């Protein structure tokens, strides 16, 4: 989930560049909107929009709702349509831009985001048209982690609504989601294992997966307010059946008996409609969006009983998530960095030294011929290309992976072919080097020794990353 931050950031930058100066979101004629600002955790100023039912000159008080977006930059526009749907059902709704200070692709703190949510909550409570005793929180995906944490900290929060909440740690959830999207694209074999295991664990070990081990269960155990937890039946990101069970059990252990679990048909992770079994990313909401939720809020306002209940059949989750093992010593980020550095120096250095020699007028051909050149080229392309391709898959949440052939993506097949070529070339180079060693100069032996060392290290590295596995 956090795992798409770079993509969201890139799209945000493009949007800012292309958006005309002074443009604004159109205000719906049937609602009233108010621009607001408030101070979040650490003194950071945050900006938002209040969307409310039209004023009819009465003293009627409405319930209130603060909405928290999912992972990524989290501009308020992402939730604008949903907020308007709630407002049309009589709920004054506050949406706000997520902080940029202390939140990035590689750093975030759900505790800080929870404090931001409570600051927004207090602002909404002060509205003259809001019943301060009937203000709740709403959180989507990553926002559900922060919203549940905020609700556990303040008894003033009247209720909690979540969409696509995850009961797993972020790293475990993201690894599961990689598998869902890759299998949807009919990918099998080593790329799936690499994305779900090696790549995810390396990101965690390198500190590039923020809040990777955050455990949401203790916060849910401390949530005593009425809870409405929603999951799309077509959710392939939150491990919905598994997460629903975890959250249900956590609420029960904490003594909370006022919760509703609802599985919404025909919608994906963010409760938007889907035309591809939940694997596409449309922005359209169902026509009845917020009907059930506003009715549920109204029952709270009327003092109706809310015994534990489950609405709709749970999604079919074919595969359970798997716990991620800690990195072994030979998988440490530092050794990975050493290996990549060796590949760059050893593989790239061989042709570079040759080019320099030619510029100096040395026209003597290299005694090892084609095999050394193949090792240098294929080894460098396979190692650097693998890291680049896997990083791209991480940024796009394994949703943009390239064409698929014989159960493998074409880029992955190409990388595997390069890896095999590098291994074959390494063997041929080693054999030729042994035969030609007596006639090699000292500098040439050093040059080839570095190349062969890089080739020897490349073999176990390629096995670890799945390049030499089926």
Automatic annotation (TrEMBL):
<keyword id="KW-0812">Transmembrane</keyword>
<dbReference type="GO" id="GO:0006508">
    <property type="term" value="P:proteolysis"/>
</dbReference>
<keyword id="KW-1133">Transmembrane helix</keyword>
<feature type="transmembrane region" description="Helical">
    <location>
        <begin position="445"/>
        <end position="463"/>
    </location>
</feature>
<dbReference type="Pfam" id="PF00326">
    <property type="entry name" value="Peptidase_S9"/>
</dbReference>
<dbReference type="InterPro" id="IPR029058">
    <property type="entry name" value="AB_hydrolase_fold"/>
</dbReference>
<dbReference type="GO" id="GO:0008236">
    <property type="term" value="F:serine-type peptidase activity"/>
</dbReference>
<dbReference type="GO" id="GO:0052689">
    <property type="term" value="F:carboxylic ester hydrolase activity"/>
</dbReference>
<feature type="signal peptide">
    <location>
        <begin position="1"/>
        <end position="26"/>
    </location>
</feature>
<feature type="transmembrane region" description="Helical">
    <location>
        <begin position="334"/>
        <end position="353"/>
    </location>
</feature>
<keyword id="KW-0472">Membrane</keyword>
<dbReference type="InterPro" id="IPR001375">
    <property type="entry name" value="Peptidase_S9_cat"/>
</dbReference>
<keyword id="KW-0732">Signal</keyword>
<feature type="transmembrane region" description="Helical">
    <location>
        <begin position="413"/>
        <end position="433"/>
    </location>
</feature>
<protein>
    <recommendedName>
        <fullName>Peptidase S9 prolyl oligopeptidase catalytic domain-containing protein</fullName>
    </recommendedName>
</protein>
<feature type="domain" description="Peptidase S9 prolyl oligopeptidase catalytic">
    <location>
        <begin position="112"/>
        <end position="271"/>
    </location>
</feature>
<dbReference type="InterPro" id="IPR053145">
    <property type="entry name" value="AB_hydrolase_Est10"/>
</dbReference>
<feature type="transmembrane region" description="Helical">
    <location>
        <begin position="374"/>
        <end position="401"/>
    </location>
</feature>
């Amino acid at each position: 989930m956090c795992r798409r931050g770079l993509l969201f950031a890139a799209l945000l930058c493009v949007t800012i560049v292309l958006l005309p100066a002074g443009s604004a979101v159109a205000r719906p004629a049937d609602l009233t909107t108010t621009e607001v600002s408030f101070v979040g955790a650490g003194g950071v100023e945050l900006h938002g929009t209040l969307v409310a039912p039209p004023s009819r000159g009465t003293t009627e008080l409405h319930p209130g709702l603060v909405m928290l977006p999912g992972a990524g930059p989290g501009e308020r526009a992402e939730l604008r349509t949903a907020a308007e749907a709630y407002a049309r059902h009589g709920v004054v709704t506050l949406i706000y831009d997520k902080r940029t200070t202390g939140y990035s692709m590689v750093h975030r703190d759900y505790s800080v985001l929870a404090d931001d949510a409570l600051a927004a909550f207090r602002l909404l409570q002060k509205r003259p048209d809001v019943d301060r005793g009937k203000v709740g929180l709403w959180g989507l995906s990553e926002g559900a982690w922060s919203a549940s944490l905020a609700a556990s900290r303040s008894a003033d929060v009247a209720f909690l609504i979540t969409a696509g909440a995850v009961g797993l740690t972020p790293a475990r959830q993201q690894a599961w989601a990689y598998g869902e999207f890759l299998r949807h694209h009919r990918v099998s074999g080593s790329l799936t294992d690499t994305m779900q295991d090696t790549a995810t664990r390396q990101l965690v070990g390198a500190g590039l997966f923020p809040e990777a081990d955050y455990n949401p269960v203790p916060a849910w155990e401390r949530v005593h307010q009425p809870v409405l937890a929603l999951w799309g039946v077509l959710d392939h990101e939150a491990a919905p059946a598994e997460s629903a069970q975890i959250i249900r059990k956590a609420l029960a252990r904490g003594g909370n008996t006022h919760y509703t679990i609802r599985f919404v048909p025909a919608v994906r992770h963010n409760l938007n409609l889907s035309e591809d079994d939940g694997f596409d990313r449309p922005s359209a909401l169902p026509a009845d969006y917020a009907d059930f939720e506003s009715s549920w809020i109204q029952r709270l306002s009327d003092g109706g009983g809310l015994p534990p209940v489950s609405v709709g059949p749970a999604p079919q989750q074919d595969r359970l998530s798997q716990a991620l093992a800690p990195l072994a010593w030979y998988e440490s980020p530092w050794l990975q960095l050493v290996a990549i550095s060796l590949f760059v120096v050893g593989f790239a250095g061989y042709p570079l030294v040759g080019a320099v020699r030619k510029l100096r007028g040395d026209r003597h051909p290299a005694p090892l011929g084609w095999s050394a050149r193949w090792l240098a080229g294929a080894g460098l392309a396979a190692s650097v290309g693998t890291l680049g391709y896997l990083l791209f898959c991480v940024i796009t949440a394994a949703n943009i992976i390239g064409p698929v052939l014989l159960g493998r993506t074409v880029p992955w097949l190409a990388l595997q072919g390069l890896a095999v070529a590098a291994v074959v070339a390494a063997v041929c180079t080693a054999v030729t080097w042994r035969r030609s060693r007596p006639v090699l100069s000292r500098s040439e032996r050093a040059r080839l020794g570095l190349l062969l060392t890089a080739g020897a290290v490349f073999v176990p590295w390629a096995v670890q990353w799945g390049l030499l596995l089926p």
